[in-house]
Amino acid sequence: MSKHLKTGLYWFLALQFALGAVTKYWPGDTIFSTAYSVKFVDWGYPSWMRFVVGALEGVAAVLLVIPDRRTRFLGATTLMFVLTGAVTTHIVNHDPVVGSWAAPTHLVIMGILALANWPADCRHLLSAAEPDALRR
């Protein structure tokens, strides 16, 4: 994949999550759905939790566009935690698939990006253990 295509992918995903962060802070209904202050309460969370989720999404979006493997890894893993919560919330609340397909799709994408940007100094965790390392 070319460098420009990868950069475009990161910017596209970052803009999606930045828009998601803005809608979490929006006081009323958005063009996409009802107000998140109402949605979070309906899901069983306090209304203020939308600010925490929005902040995490916004920071992670910024981290995705910084062209450094560590920052992109941190952004992708942060979004994986947020999206795991979103997917779990949709499952627990029996939300229709039509309204909740984006969270699992983005979770898979962020998992792929996290693995693609795994920091080099942590790669030895995935390799087979060397016999000498086991003896120490």
UniProtKB/TrEMBL annotation:
The keyword Membrane applies. Pfam families: DoxX_2 (PF13564). It comes from the Bacteria. It comes from Nonomuraea diastatica. This is DoxX family protein. It is found in: Membrane. It is a multi-pass membrane protein. InterPro entries: DoxX (IPR032808). Keywords: Membrane, Transmembrane, Transmembrane helix. The lineage of its organism: Bacteria, Bacillati, Actinomycetota, Actinomycetes, Streptosporangiales. The keyword Transmembrane applies. One of its GO terms (cellular component) is membrane. The chain crosses the membrane at residues 48-66, 73-92, 98-118.
